[in-house]
């Protein structure tokens, strides 16, 4: 790192685009090194968590927060992609806002596994990457996008710098990665348009961010350059540009790829012409349909000959020229960028010759996809996927929660630990003399308790939204009222009862306060601990002294004897009971006690990232109004014996 003189001494000069230096703290993250700068911000390798993990952290522009719709769209896409985790895409681990800067945390790919940017990989192939390798890359990209499109999402930023290629291996899935950069798509598009219209393409000295924005602009489809929203067909256009560049080493021109790249099969011509149609409705509707067409075409040879029956050629009296991309220069860093925008010179297509049946074909005949073959292949794939899904459902439907064994909810992935019956003395601290005289409470029936507090991914997958203020797919869902927690449990109960996976007389619900404390103490074999799983708060709990002002992904701290994590700290957890003082609690029955009489609030237990470790002790209890939805309050699901319905009354009494 360079240095310069200042009045206060020698200070470091950071590389272009870098705002944080190695060793700096950013929220819960410590900066390890600067990785680069893109059109939407700078990227760092960071370390965080306990045990320490290394991830990639992208700092997005502060201006994003000033556009509420763009920020909301970004959060929605990030949550969806984090829960979806499409094949071949880099995992999205979390996102949020710190010190006025929005950020996105992703899996760190590169370095140890030898992955490199597709742009760097292509520099060794000046005339284009070999067709056989191009097929693998494009198939991997389309496979990841197909999963995204199947769920109604759009990537919106498919371009060579966002694709990484692994080092070696025959399995495509282990070599190629499409960076899942969830957005903000429309905000990024507007920034790229603004940069292009400002004439940055003609500026001899552009910074790294400007070059990245122009790379984004050149990957945009025609309708997006005119301000239309991103659609799956927009991603298809970007894949078409990518494939042409891989095959030929050039941006799209007037010649089909088979005439530009050495050994490029002719079936690529019709495939890319369809992907690069000017109107979205004339392209493949989504990545899955383009992938189906590619698989049909690939059944032919890769030595330059077309497949036996992949296409039909339609001669027209006036063949239409292919669409001309907005940017005609090569990828940034390989040759100067020139942008075709309104008011700047535009390269026009030469007049097309008229072709007749007697004449030889025109230099660029209109080629259309054999939709029958591609649709047939698509139908076969869908039938196979449906058969696999039904087989999985049949296998799952034959299973159910069984006493004495852990349980995972099929489809949701929520893990449960079985807690056998037993007894304990509630409210008694470790080492207290009156322990032997404390009131004995018995849990007469076994139950299951979720291994972790409900995560944001689980909540979104079941109820379809995420109300949390501390974003992260694996973070506990927060800002949850008691009533919303009850609604989540009721929905899960209805789903699992329909699937016939519930034990007789059991339901998903909030734990009673007695069940919560009994499980926190370790069940029938009680642990002598101050906190849940340890007498050292920092080993098991996120509290105000170590949380850095936010919640953290579940399961990062040690578990108790039963395998339950985060029962001390991270977020407060709702219980089923009404909240009363300890004296009233002592008057409840000794067997399976639960407070049914409405009062001023409901019980919350465990402490949170916002309060001191004192409140994370397993004996400490608190209460909150049922409608409160604080940013440090979540819940943990119990699968236990059905409770009286009157416990679900709204209360408190008038």
Overall 3D form: elongated
The percentage of residues in β strands lies in 15-25%
Question: Major β-sheet, in short?
Answer: 6 strands, antiparallel
Compute the CA-based radius of gyration: 30 Å
Tell me the total number of β-strands: 24
Would you give an account of this structure?
Strand 5 and strand 6 (53-59) form a beta hairpin. The chain is elongated and about 85 Å long. The chain has a six-stranded antiparallel β-sheet. The protein has helices at residues 68-84, 118-122, 131-150, 172-175, 185-197, 208-218, 222-225, 232-248, 267-275, 287-298, 371-397, 456-463, 482-498, 513-520, 537-540, 582-586, and strands at residues 2-6, 9-13, 25-26, 29-38, 41-48, 53-59, 92-98, 101-107, 116-117, 163-165, 176-178, 311-313, 367-369, 407-408, 415-419, 422-424, 441-443, 447-450, 506-509, 572-578, 602-605, 621-624, 633-634, 638-641. The chain has 16 helices and 24 strands. The chain has 654 residues and is an alpha+beta fold. Helix 3 packs antiparallel against helix 8 (232-248) and helix 9 (267-275) packs antiparallel against helix 10.
Topology overview:
Layout: E1 2-6, E2 9-13, E3 25-26, E4 29-38, E5 41-48, E6 53-59, H1 68-84, E7 92-98, E8 101-107, E9 116-117, H2 118-122, H3 131-150, E10 163-165, H4 172-175, E11 176-178, H5 185-197, H6 208-218, H7 222-225, H8 232-248, H9 267-275, H10 287-298, E12 311-313, E13 367-369, H11 371-397, E14 407-408, E15 415-419, E16 422-424, E17 441-443, E18 447-450, H12 456-463, H13 482-498, E19 506-509, H14 513-520, H15 537-540, E20 572-578, H16 582-586, E21 602-605, E22 621-624, E23 633-634, E24 638-641
Parallel strand pairs: 20-23
Antiparallel strand pairs: 1-2, 3-4, 4-5, 5-6, 6-8, 7-8, 9-10, 10-11, 12-13, 14-15, 15-18, 16-17, 18-24, 19-24, 20-21, 21-22
Helix pairs in contact: 1-12, 3-8, 3-10, 5-6, 8-9, 9-10, 10-11
